Amino acid sequence: MVRVAEEQTLAPRAGRREWSALTVLVLVVVLIAVDNTVLYLAVPSMAADIAPSSTQLLWIGDIYSFVLAGLLITMGNLADRIGRKRLLLIGAGGFGVASVIAAFAPNPEILIAARVLLGVAGATLMPSTLAIIRATFLDATQRTTAIAIWAMGATAGAAVGPLVGGVLLENFWWGSVFLINVPVMVIVLVAGPILLSESRGSSALTIDVLSALLSILAIVPVVYAVKHWAGSGLDWSVPVTAAFGLIMGYVFVRRQMRLPNPLLDLSLFRMPAFSGAVAANGLAIFAFLGLLYFFSQYLQLVREYGPLKAGLAELPSTIASMVVILFIGALVARMGAGRSIGLGLSLGAVGLAGICMTVSMSSYWGLGISLVLIGLGIGIAMTLSTDAVVSAVPIERAGAASSIAETAYELGGALGIAVLGSVHLAMYHSHLNLSAGTDPSDAAIAESSLASTVADVADRVVVEHAQAAFVSAVQTTSVVAAVILAVSAVVAWRVIPSPAGCHSRYP
Protein backbone atom coordinates (compact mmCIF):
# COMPACT_ATOMS: atom_id res chain seq x y z
CA MET A 1 0.00 0.00 0.00
CA VAL A 2 3.03 2.28 -0.26
CA ARG A 3 1.78 3.85 -3.48
CA VAL A 4 -1.56 4.61 -1.84
CA ALA A 5 0.06 6.31 1.14
CA GLU A 6 2.29 8.39 -1.06
CA GLU A 7 -0.62 9.56 -3.18
CA GLN A 8 -2.63 10.53 -0.14
CA THR A 9 0.12 12.39 1.70
CA LEU A 10 2.18 13.96 -1.06
CA ALA A 11 -0.30 14.78 -3.82
CA PRO A 12 -1.01 18.51 -4.17
CA ARG A 13 -4.64 19.62 -3.99
CA ALA A 14 -6.38 21.24 -6.91
CA GLY A 15 -7.34 24.90 -6.76
CA ARG A 16 -9.74 27.26 -8.51
CA ARG A 17 -8.02 26.97 -11.89
CA GLU A 18 -8.23 23.17 -11.88
CA TRP A 19 -11.93 23.15 -10.97
CA SER A 20 -12.59 25.75 -13.66
CA ALA A 21 -10.77 23.49 -16.13
CA LEU A 22 -13.08 20.66 -15.08
CA THR A 23 -16.05 22.77 -16.19
CA VAL A 24 -14.59 22.89 -19.69
CA LEU A 25 -14.05 19.12 -19.72
CA VAL A 26 -17.59 18.40 -18.49
CA LEU A 27 -19.04 20.63 -21.22
CA VAL A 28 -17.29 18.41 -23.76
CA VAL A 29 -18.60 15.20 -22.17
CA VAL A 30 -22.16 16.46 -21.95
CA LEU A 31 -22.10 17.47 -25.59
CA ILE A 32 -20.73 14.11 -26.76
CA ALA A 33 -23.39 12.28 -24.74
CA VAL A 34 -26.16 14.54 -26.07
CA ASP A 35 -24.99 13.89 -29.63
CA ASN A 36 -25.46 10.15 -29.08
CA THR A 37 -29.22 10.55 -28.54
CA VAL A 38 -30.35 13.93 -29.85
CA LEU A 39 -30.53 12.92 -33.53
CA TYR A 40 -33.29 10.33 -33.24
CA LEU A 41 -36.11 12.85 -32.83
CA ALA A 42 -34.87 14.76 -35.87
CA VAL A 43 -35.13 11.81 -38.25
CA PRO A 44 -38.65 12.53 -39.60
CA SER A 45 -37.99 16.18 -40.52
CA MET A 46 -34.50 15.36 -41.79
CA ALA A 47 -35.86 12.55 -43.97
CA ALA A 48 -38.49 14.88 -45.41
CA ASP A 49 -35.87 17.52 -46.24
CA ILE A 50 -32.95 15.61 -47.78
CA ALA A 51 -34.77 12.33 -48.62
CA PRO A 52 -32.20 9.67 -47.65
CA SER A 53 -32.77 6.07 -48.63
CA SER A 54 -33.47 3.55 -45.88
CA THR A 55 -29.85 2.40 -46.02
CA GLN A 56 -28.53 5.96 -45.91
CA LEU A 57 -30.80 6.70 -42.95
CA LEU A 58 -29.29 3.80 -41.03
CA TRP A 59 -25.78 5.01 -41.77
CA ILE A 60 -26.65 8.56 -40.70
CA GLY A 61 -27.79 7.20 -37.34
CA ASP A 62 -25.08 4.60 -36.76
CA ILE A 63 -21.83 5.72 -38.41
CA TYR A 64 -21.03 8.17 -35.61
CA SER A 65 -21.00 5.50 -32.91
CA PHE A 66 -19.14 3.03 -35.16
CA VAL A 67 -16.29 5.46 -35.81
CA LEU A 68 -16.24 6.71 -32.21
CA ALA A 69 -16.03 3.23 -30.70
CA GLY A 70 -13.49 1.99 -33.24
CA LEU A 71 -11.03 4.84 -32.70
CA LEU A 72 -11.17 5.24 -28.91
CA ILE A 73 -8.22 2.96 -28.11
CA THR A 74 -6.06 4.49 -30.83
CA MET A 75 -6.90 8.06 -29.85
CA GLY A 76 -6.31 7.38 -26.16
CA ASN A 77 -2.79 6.23 -26.98
CA LEU A 78 -2.28 9.16 -29.36
CA ALA A 79 -3.23 11.53 -26.52
CA ASP A 80 -0.50 9.99 -24.36
CA ARG A 81 1.95 10.46 -27.23
CA ILE A 82 1.30 14.03 -28.44
CA GLY A 83 -0.40 15.56 -25.39
CA ARG A 84 -3.96 15.29 -24.07
CA LYS A 85 -4.66 19.02 -24.16
CA ARG A 86 -3.38 19.33 -27.72
CA LEU A 87 -5.50 16.43 -28.95
CA LEU A 88 -8.55 17.75 -27.08
CA LEU A 89 -8.29 21.16 -28.74
CA ILE A 90 -7.73 19.61 -32.18
CA GLY A 91 -10.78 17.41 -31.61
CA ALA A 92 -12.89 20.35 -30.41
CA GLY A 93 -12.10 22.32 -33.55
CA GLY A 94 -12.88 19.32 -35.75
CA PHE A 95 -16.13 18.65 -33.88
CA GLY A 96 -17.29 22.23 -34.38
CA VAL A 97 -16.49 22.24 -38.12
CA ALA A 98 -18.13 18.85 -38.66
CA SER A 99 -21.23 20.04 -36.78
CA VAL A 100 -21.65 23.01 -39.13
CA ILE A 101 -21.25 20.73 -42.17
CA ALA A 102 -23.86 18.33 -40.74
CA ALA A 103 -26.34 21.11 -39.92
CA PHE A 104 -26.33 22.47 -43.47
CA ALA A 105 -25.81 19.19 -45.33
CA PRO A 106 -27.65 19.45 -48.68
CA ASN A 107 -27.83 15.69 -49.25
CA PRO A 108 -27.45 12.39 -47.36
CA GLU A 109 -23.91 11.78 -48.62
CA ILE A 110 -22.59 15.00 -47.09
CA LEU A 111 -24.43 14.30 -43.84
CA ILE A 112 -22.92 10.80 -43.60
CA ALA A 113 -19.44 12.23 -44.22
CA ALA A 114 -20.04 14.87 -41.53
CA ARG A 115 -21.14 12.17 -39.08
CA VAL A 116 -17.90 10.28 -39.81
CA LEU A 117 -15.91 13.42 -38.98
CA LEU A 118 -17.96 13.87 -35.80
CA GLY A 119 -17.08 10.31 -34.78
CA VAL A 120 -13.36 10.88 -35.39
CA ALA A 121 -13.42 14.13 -33.41
CA GLY A 122 -15.50 12.55 -30.64
CA ALA A 123 -12.94 9.76 -30.30
CA THR A 124 -10.23 12.35 -29.64
CA LEU A 125 -12.32 14.16 -27.04
CA MET A 126 -13.61 11.46 -24.69
CA PRO A 127 -10.37 9.77 -23.56
CA SER A 128 -8.59 13.13 -23.49
CA THR A 129 -11.06 14.53 -20.94
CA LEU A 130 -10.57 11.62 -18.54
CA ALA A 131 -6.80 11.58 -18.98
CA ILE A 132 -6.59 15.32 -18.23
CA ILE A 133 -8.67 14.80 -15.08
CA ARG A 134 -6.30 12.02 -14.00
CA ALA A 135 -3.28 14.27 -14.54
CA THR A 136 -4.88 17.41 -13.03
CA PHE A 137 -6.47 16.02 -9.85
CA LEU A 138 -3.65 14.23 -8.07
CA ASP A 139 -5.36 14.13 -4.67
CA ALA A 140 -7.41 10.92 -4.59
CA THR A 141 -10.44 12.42 -2.84
CA GLN A 142 -10.59 15.38 -5.21
CA ARG A 143 -10.13 13.09 -8.21
CA THR A 144 -13.12 11.00 -7.16
CA THR A 145 -15.25 14.14 -6.91
CA ALA A 146 -13.99 15.36 -10.29
CA ILE A 147 -14.77 12.03 -11.96
CA ALA A 148 -18.20 12.03 -10.27
CA ILE A 149 -18.90 15.36 -11.95
CA TRP A 150 -17.54 13.97 -15.24
CA ALA A 151 -19.74 10.86 -14.97
CA MET A 152 -22.72 13.05 -14.12
CA GLY A 153 -22.13 14.90 -17.37
CA ALA A 154 -22.01 11.65 -19.34
CA THR A 155 -25.25 10.25 -17.88
CA ALA A 156 -27.05 13.59 -17.87
CA GLY A 157 -26.16 14.21 -21.50
CA ALA A 158 -27.52 10.84 -22.57
CA ALA A 159 -30.72 11.40 -20.59
CA VAL A 160 -31.44 14.98 -21.69
CA GLY A 161 -30.49 14.45 -25.34
CA PRO A 162 -34.07 13.67 -26.38
CA LEU A 163 -35.33 16.56 -24.24
CA VAL A 164 -32.96 19.01 -25.91
CA GLY A 165 -33.86 17.60 -29.31
CA GLY A 166 -37.57 17.96 -28.59
CA VAL A 167 -37.21 21.61 -27.59
CA LEU A 168 -35.08 22.48 -30.63
CA LEU A 169 -37.28 20.67 -33.12
CA GLU A 170 -40.39 22.37 -31.83
CA ASN A 171 -38.85 25.73 -32.73
CA PHE A 172 -36.17 25.19 -35.42
CA TRP A 173 -35.22 22.93 -38.33
CA TRP A 174 -33.47 19.57 -37.93
CA GLY A 175 -29.97 21.03 -38.40
CA SER A 176 -30.30 22.87 -35.09
CA VAL A 177 -29.51 19.64 -33.21
CA PHE A 178 -26.01 19.86 -34.67
CA LEU A 179 -25.53 23.62 -34.33
CA ILE A 180 -25.83 23.44 -30.52
CA ASN A 181 -22.34 21.92 -30.64
CA VAL A 182 -20.75 25.03 -32.10
CA PRO A 183 -20.98 27.53 -29.19
CA VAL A 184 -19.82 24.85 -26.74
CA MET A 185 -16.77 24.07 -28.85
CA VAL A 186 -16.01 27.78 -29.17
CA ILE A 187 -15.98 28.00 -25.36
CA VAL A 188 -13.64 25.00 -25.21
CA LEU A 189 -11.28 26.48 -27.81
CA VAL A 190 -11.18 29.85 -25.99
CA ALA A 191 -11.04 28.64 -22.37
CA GLY A 192 -9.12 25.40 -22.94
CA PRO A 193 -5.71 26.93 -23.78
CA ILE A 194 -5.99 29.15 -20.69
CA LEU A 195 -7.31 26.71 -18.09
CA LEU A 196 -6.10 23.27 -19.17
CA SER A 197 -2.60 22.05 -18.40
CA GLU A 198 -0.74 19.92 -20.91
CA SER A 199 0.23 16.39 -19.99
CA ARG A 200 1.60 13.49 -21.95
CA GLY A 201 3.40 10.20 -21.61
CA SER A 202 6.74 9.32 -23.07
CA SER A 203 7.34 10.86 -26.49
CA ALA A 204 9.45 7.82 -27.30
CA LEU A 205 6.37 5.61 -27.39
CA THR A 206 5.20 4.82 -30.90
CA ILE A 207 1.75 3.77 -32.03
CA ASP A 208 1.69 0.45 -33.83
CA VAL A 209 -0.39 1.15 -36.95
CA LEU A 210 -1.33 -2.51 -37.45
CA SER A 211 -2.58 -2.73 -33.87
CA ALA A 212 -4.66 0.41 -34.40
CA LEU A 213 -6.18 -1.11 -37.55
CA LEU A 214 -6.87 -4.41 -35.80
CA SER A 215 -8.59 -2.62 -32.90
CA ILE A 216 -10.92 -0.90 -35.37
CA LEU A 217 -11.62 -4.18 -37.20
CA ALA A 218 -12.37 -5.84 -33.84
CA ILE A 219 -14.64 -3.23 -32.31
CA VAL A 220 -16.62 -1.82 -35.26
CA PRO A 221 -18.07 -5.17 -36.48
CA VAL A 222 -19.15 -6.07 -32.94
CA VAL A 223 -20.82 -2.68 -32.44
CA TYR A 224 -22.46 -3.04 -35.87
CA ALA A 225 -23.74 -6.51 -34.98
CA VAL A 226 -25.36 -5.49 -31.72
CA LYS A 227 -26.88 -2.29 -33.18
CA HIS A 228 -28.23 -4.19 -36.18
CA TRP A 229 -29.65 -6.81 -33.83
CA ALA A 230 -31.39 -4.09 -31.83
CA GLY A 231 -32.68 -2.17 -34.84
CA SER A 232 -33.51 -4.83 -37.42
CA GLY A 233 -33.61 -8.11 -35.53
CA LEU A 234 -31.42 -11.20 -35.68
CA ASP A 235 -30.41 -12.16 -39.22
CA TRP A 236 -27.36 -13.71 -40.88
CA SER A 237 -25.32 -10.50 -40.75
CA VAL A 238 -25.30 -10.42 -36.93
CA PRO A 239 -23.35 -13.66 -36.28
CA VAL A 240 -21.14 -13.14 -39.36
CA THR A 241 -20.01 -9.61 -38.43
CA ALA A 242 -19.77 -10.47 -34.74
CA ALA A 243 -17.62 -13.52 -35.55
CA PHE A 244 -15.35 -11.43 -37.79
CA GLY A 245 -14.94 -8.85 -35.03
CA LEU A 246 -14.13 -11.52 -32.45
CA ILE A 247 -11.54 -13.11 -34.76
CA MET A 248 -9.90 -9.72 -35.33
CA GLY A 249 -10.06 -9.17 -31.56
CA TYR A 250 -8.19 -12.43 -31.01
CA VAL A 251 -5.52 -11.42 -33.54
CA PHE A 252 -5.29 -8.01 -31.86
CA VAL A 253 -4.81 -9.54 -28.41
CA ARG A 254 -2.14 -11.96 -29.67
CA ARG A 255 -0.24 -9.06 -31.23
CA GLN A 256 -0.41 -7.00 -28.02
CA MET A 257 1.12 -9.88 -26.08
CA ARG A 258 4.19 -9.81 -28.37
CA LEU A 259 4.81 -6.06 -28.57
CA PRO A 260 7.19 -4.32 -26.12
CA ASN A 261 4.94 -1.22 -26.10
CA PRO A 262 1.43 -2.53 -26.86
CA LEU A 263 -1.52 -0.36 -27.80
CA LEU A 264 -3.50 -2.15 -25.09
CA ASP A 265 -1.61 -3.26 -21.99
CA LEU A 266 -3.28 -6.61 -21.25
CA SER A 267 -1.40 -6.99 -17.97
CA LEU A 268 -3.78 -4.40 -16.52
CA PHE A 269 -6.60 -6.93 -16.71
CA ARG A 270 -4.77 -9.17 -14.25
CA MET A 271 -5.55 -6.54 -11.61
CA PRO A 272 -8.95 -7.17 -9.98
CA ALA A 273 -9.39 -3.44 -9.37
CA PHE A 274 -8.94 -2.72 -13.07
CA SER A 275 -10.75 -5.61 -14.74
CA GLY A 276 -13.62 -5.53 -12.26
CA ALA A 277 -13.99 -1.79 -12.70
CA VAL A 278 -14.08 -2.06 -16.52
CA ALA A 279 -16.80 -4.71 -16.26
CA ALA A 280 -18.79 -2.65 -13.73
CA ASN A 281 -18.56 0.43 -15.95
CA GLY A 282 -19.87 -1.44 -18.98
CA LEU A 283 -22.69 -3.17 -17.06
CA ALA A 284 -23.84 0.06 -15.41
CA ILE A 285 -24.29 1.81 -18.74
CA PHE A 286 -25.71 -1.45 -20.18
CA ALA A 287 -28.63 -1.21 -17.76
CA PHE A 288 -29.00 2.59 -17.95
CA LEU A 289 -29.13 2.98 -21.74
CA GLY A 290 -31.13 -0.25 -22.08
CA LEU A 291 -33.67 1.28 -19.69
CA LEU A 292 -33.79 4.58 -21.59
CA TYR A 293 -34.38 2.69 -24.85
CA PHE A 294 -37.74 1.23 -23.86
CA PHE A 295 -38.71 3.58 -21.03
CA SER A 296 -38.80 6.65 -23.27
CA GLN A 297 -41.12 4.77 -25.61
CA TYR A 298 -43.28 3.73 -22.67
CA LEU A 299 -43.72 7.32 -21.51
CA GLN A 300 -44.74 8.57 -24.96
CA LEU A 301 -46.69 5.61 -26.31
CA VAL A 302 -48.39 4.24 -23.19
CA ARG A 303 -48.69 7.26 -20.88
CA GLU A 304 -49.01 9.45 -23.99
CA TYR A 305 -46.58 12.10 -22.80
CA GLY A 306 -45.18 14.54 -25.34
CA PRO A 307 -41.40 14.54 -25.97
CA LEU A 308 -40.83 17.44 -23.58
CA LYS A 309 -42.94 15.96 -20.78
CA ALA A 310 -41.30 12.55 -21.30
CA GLY A 311 -37.88 14.12 -20.98
CA LEU A 312 -38.92 15.86 -17.77
CA ALA A 313 -40.32 12.58 -16.41
CA GLU A 314 -36.88 10.98 -16.81
CA LEU A 315 -35.08 13.80 -14.99
CA PRO A 316 -35.21 12.22 -11.49
CA SER A 317 -32.49 9.74 -12.52
CA THR A 318 -30.32 12.56 -13.85
CA ILE A 319 -30.78 14.71 -10.75
CA ALA A 320 -30.05 11.72 -8.50
CA SER A 321 -26.80 11.05 -10.36
CA MET A 322 -25.81 14.67 -9.64
CA VAL A 323 -26.45 14.20 -5.91
CA VAL A 324 -23.77 11.48 -5.87
CA ILE A 325 -21.17 14.28 -5.97
CA LEU A 326 -22.09 15.28 -2.42
CA PHE A 327 -21.25 11.99 -0.72
CA ILE A 328 -19.15 9.86 -3.08
CA GLY A 329 -15.84 10.71 -1.38
CA ALA A 330 -17.11 9.86 2.09
CA LEU A 331 -18.72 6.66 0.81
CA VAL A 332 -15.57 5.25 -0.78
CA ALA A 333 -13.43 6.32 2.18
CA ARG A 334 -15.74 4.40 4.50
CA MET A 335 -16.52 1.32 2.40
CA GLY A 336 -13.75 1.08 -0.20
CA ALA A 337 -14.19 1.02 -3.96
CA GLY A 338 -15.36 -2.57 -4.49
CA ARG A 339 -18.11 -2.49 -1.89
CA SER A 340 -19.19 1.00 -2.96
CA ILE A 341 -19.46 -0.11 -6.60
CA GLY A 342 -21.38 -3.19 -5.41
CA LEU A 343 -23.72 -0.92 -3.43
CA GLY A 344 -24.28 1.29 -6.48
CA LEU A 345 -25.10 -1.67 -8.73
CA SER A 346 -27.44 -3.01 -6.02
CA LEU A 347 -29.31 0.31 -5.83
CA GLY A 348 -29.65 0.23 -9.62
CA ALA A 349 -31.06 -3.31 -9.41
CA VAL A 350 -33.60 -2.25 -6.76
CA GLY A 351 -34.64 0.71 -8.91
CA LEU A 352 -35.15 -1.53 -11.95
CA ALA A 353 -37.23 -3.91 -9.84
CA GLY A 354 -39.23 -0.86 -8.77
CA ILE A 355 -39.90 -0.04 -12.44
CA CYS A 356 -41.34 -3.54 -12.82
CA MET A 357 -43.70 -3.07 -9.86
CA THR A 358 -44.85 0.48 -10.62
CA VAL A 359 -44.95 0.73 -14.41
CA SER A 360 -48.58 -0.47 -14.55
CA MET A 361 -49.76 2.05 -11.92
CA SER A 362 -51.54 5.23 -12.94
CA SER A 363 -49.53 7.36 -10.52
CA TYR A 364 -46.06 8.55 -11.56
CA TRP A 365 -44.61 8.68 -8.04
CA GLY A 366 -43.53 5.04 -7.88
CA LEU A 367 -41.71 5.41 -11.19
CA GLY A 368 -40.09 8.62 -10.01
CA ILE A 369 -38.72 6.97 -6.85
CA SER A 370 -37.44 4.02 -8.90
CA LEU A 371 -35.67 6.39 -11.28
CA VAL A 372 -34.02 8.14 -8.31
CA LEU A 373 -32.64 4.80 -7.09
CA ILE A 374 -31.38 3.99 -10.59
CA GLY A 375 -29.72 7.41 -10.89
CA LEU A 376 -28.02 7.07 -7.51
CA GLY A 377 -26.83 3.55 -8.23
CA ILE A 378 -25.56 4.17 -11.73
CA GLY A 379 -23.91 7.41 -10.61
CA ILE A 380 -21.99 5.63 -7.84
CA ALA A 381 -21.00 2.65 -10.00
CA MET A 382 -19.91 4.69 -13.03
CA THR A 383 -17.96 7.22 -10.99
CA LEU A 384 -15.97 4.72 -8.96
CA SER A 385 -15.44 2.21 -11.75
CA THR A 386 -14.13 4.96 -14.03
CA ASP A 387 -11.96 6.27 -11.20
CA ALA A 388 -10.59 2.81 -10.56
CA VAL A 389 -9.66 2.36 -14.23
CA VAL A 390 -7.74 5.63 -14.60
CA SER A 391 -6.17 5.37 -11.13
CA ALA A 392 -4.80 1.91 -11.75
CA VAL A 393 -2.18 3.12 -14.25
CA PRO A 394 0.66 5.66 -14.12
CA ILE A 395 -0.25 9.17 -15.21
CA GLU A 396 1.76 8.76 -18.42
CA ARG A 397 -0.63 5.99 -19.53
CA ALA A 398 -3.82 7.78 -18.49
CA GLY A 399 -4.99 8.27 -22.06
CA ALA A 400 -4.76 4.57 -22.86
CA ALA A 401 -6.59 3.64 -19.65
CA SER A 402 -9.28 6.25 -20.33
CA SER A 403 -9.86 4.82 -23.78
CA ILE A 404 -10.51 1.39 -22.23
CA ALA A 405 -13.11 2.91 -19.90
CA GLU A 406 -14.74 4.72 -22.81
CA THR A 407 -14.76 1.59 -24.98
CA ALA A 408 -16.49 -0.30 -22.15
CA TYR A 409 -19.02 2.54 -22.02
CA GLU A 410 -19.72 2.40 -25.77
CA LEU A 411 -19.91 -1.41 -25.95
CA GLY A 412 -21.99 -1.57 -22.78
CA GLY A 413 -24.47 0.94 -24.15
CA ALA A 414 -24.74 -0.80 -27.52
CA LEU A 415 -25.18 -4.21 -25.89
CA GLY A 416 -27.73 -2.82 -23.43
CA ILE A 417 -29.91 -1.49 -26.24
CA ALA A 418 -29.47 -4.65 -28.33
CA VAL A 419 -29.95 -7.26 -25.62
CA LEU A 420 -32.61 -5.55 -23.52
CA GLY A 421 -34.31 -4.23 -26.65
CA SER A 422 -34.50 -7.78 -28.05
CA VAL A 423 -35.83 -9.14 -24.76
CA HIS A 424 -38.44 -6.41 -24.71
CA LEU A 425 -39.52 -7.10 -28.31
CA ALA A 426 -39.81 -10.84 -27.68
CA MET A 427 -41.90 -10.24 -24.55
CA TYR A 428 -44.09 -7.75 -26.40
CA HIS A 429 -44.89 -10.34 -29.05
CA SER A 430 -45.56 -13.05 -26.45
CA HIS A 431 -47.99 -10.83 -24.47
CA LEU A 432 -49.83 -9.43 -27.50
CA ASN A 433 -53.12 -11.33 -27.31
CA LEU A 434 -55.49 -9.95 -29.93
CA SER A 435 -58.98 -11.32 -30.36
CA ALA A 436 -59.78 -13.63 -33.27
CA GLY A 437 -61.97 -10.97 -34.90
CA THR A 438 -59.18 -8.37 -35.15
CA ASP A 439 -58.73 -6.89 -38.60
CA PRO A 440 -55.69 -8.68 -40.19
CA SER A 441 -54.05 -5.42 -41.27
CA ASP A 442 -54.42 -3.98 -37.75
CA ALA A 443 -53.01 -7.19 -36.27
CA ALA A 444 -50.00 -7.01 -38.59
CA ILE A 445 -49.31 -3.42 -37.58
CA ALA A 446 -49.65 -4.30 -33.90
CA GLU A 447 -47.18 -7.14 -34.34
CA SER A 448 -44.60 -4.79 -35.85
CA SER A 449 -44.39 -2.25 -33.01
CA LEU A 450 -46.40 -0.21 -30.54
CA ALA A 451 -45.26 3.01 -32.23
CA SER A 452 -46.82 1.91 -35.53
CA THR A 453 -49.96 0.79 -33.70
CA VAL A 454 -50.49 4.14 -31.97
CA ALA A 455 -49.84 6.04 -35.20
CA ASP A 456 -51.75 3.92 -37.73
CA VAL A 457 -54.44 1.81 -36.01
CA ALA A 458 -57.85 3.42 -35.46
CA ASP A 459 -59.31 0.53 -33.44
CA ARG A 460 -58.85 1.63 -29.83
CA VAL A 461 -59.19 -1.92 -28.52
CA VAL A 462 -56.19 -3.05 -30.57
CA VAL A 463 -54.16 -0.05 -29.34
CA GLU A 464 -55.01 -0.83 -25.71
CA HIS A 465 -54.03 -4.50 -26.16
CA ALA A 466 -50.72 -3.40 -27.68
CA GLN A 467 -50.12 -0.94 -24.85
CA ALA A 468 -50.84 -3.63 -22.26
CA ALA A 469 -48.41 -6.00 -24.01
CA PHE A 470 -45.78 -3.26 -24.03
CA VAL A 471 -46.20 -2.68 -20.28
CA SER A 472 -45.81 -6.41 -19.61
CA ALA A 473 -42.67 -6.41 -21.73
CA VAL A 474 -41.28 -3.46 -19.76
CA GLN A 475 -41.88 -5.40 -16.54
CA THR A 476 -40.05 -8.50 -17.77
CA THR A 477 -37.18 -6.52 -19.27
CA SER A 478 -36.73 -4.52 -16.07
CA VAL A 479 -36.46 -7.75 -14.08
CA VAL A 480 -33.83 -9.12 -16.50
CA ALA A 481 -31.78 -5.92 -16.20
CA ALA A 482 -32.21 -5.95 -12.40
CA VAL A 483 -30.91 -9.54 -12.17
CA ILE A 484 -27.87 -8.65 -14.32
CA LEU A 485 -27.03 -5.70 -12.08
CA ALA A 486 -27.61 -7.73 -8.90
CA VAL A 487 -25.19 -10.44 -10.05
CA SER A 488 -22.71 -7.75 -11.08
CA ALA A 489 -23.04 -6.17 -7.64
CA VAL A 490 -22.06 -9.41 -5.92
CA VAL A 491 -19.09 -9.85 -8.24
CA ALA A 492 -17.91 -6.24 -7.72
CA TRP A 493 -18.28 -6.58 -3.94
CA ARG A 494 -16.14 -9.72 -3.90
CA VAL A 495 -13.64 -9.07 -6.71
CA ILE A 496 -12.75 -5.37 -6.62
CA PRO A 497 -10.51 -4.60 -3.62
CA SER A 498 -11.97 -2.51 -0.80
CA PRO A 499 -9.10 -1.79 1.61
CA ALA A 500 -10.40 -0.50 4.93
CA GLY A 501 -9.93 3.24 5.44
CA CYS A 502 -8.21 3.55 2.05
CA HIS A 503 -9.38 5.94 -0.63
CA SER A 504 -7.47 4.46 -3.56
CA ARG A 505 -9.04 1.98 -5.94
CA TYR A 506 -5.99 -0.09 -6.68
CA PRO A 507 -3.88 -2.47 -4.60
Question: Short description, anyone?
Answer:
The protein has 507 residues and is mostly helical. It has helices at residues 2-10, 16-37, 43-50, 54-82, 84-103, 108-136, 140-171, 176-179, 181-195, 209-232, 237-258, 272-301, 307-313, 315-335, 337-358, 365-391, 398-431, 440-448, 450-456, 460-495.
Name the descriptors:
80% helix; mainly alpha; Growth Hormone, Chain: A; disordered N terminus; single chain; disordered C terminus; 20 helices
Please give a structural write-up.
The chain is built from 20 helices and no strands. It is mainly alpha-helical. Helix 4 (54-82) runs antiparallel to helix 17 (398-431).
Topology:
Layout: H1 2-10, H2 16-37, H3 43-50, H4 54-82, H5 84-103, H6 108-136, H7 140-171, H8 176-179, H9 181-195, H10 209-232, H11 237-258, H12 272-301, H13 307-313, H14 315-335, H15 337-358, H16 365-391, H17 398-431, H18 440-448, H19 450-456, H20 460-495
Oligomeric description of these chains:
single chain
**What is the mean pLDDT?**
81
**Alpha carbon gyration radius:** 22 Å
Strand content: under 5%
Shape annotation: globular
Number of domains: 3
The CATH class assignment of the largest domain is Mainly Alpha
Please tally the helical runs, counting DSSP H or I stretches of 4 or more residues: 20
Residue runs with pLDDT of under 50 for 5 or more positions: 1-9, 500-507
Q: What is the rounded distance between the termini? A: 7 Å
What about the largest sheet? Answer: none
Q: CATH superfamily name of the largest domain?
A: MFS general substrate transporter like domains
CATH architectural arrangement of the largest domain: Up-down Bundle
Fraction of residues in helix: over 70%
Q: Can you count the beta strands?
A: 0
Structural class: mainly alpha
CATH topology of the largest domain: Growth Hormone, Chain: A
Q: Which H/E pattern describes the elements?
A: HHHHHHHHHHHHHHHHHHHH
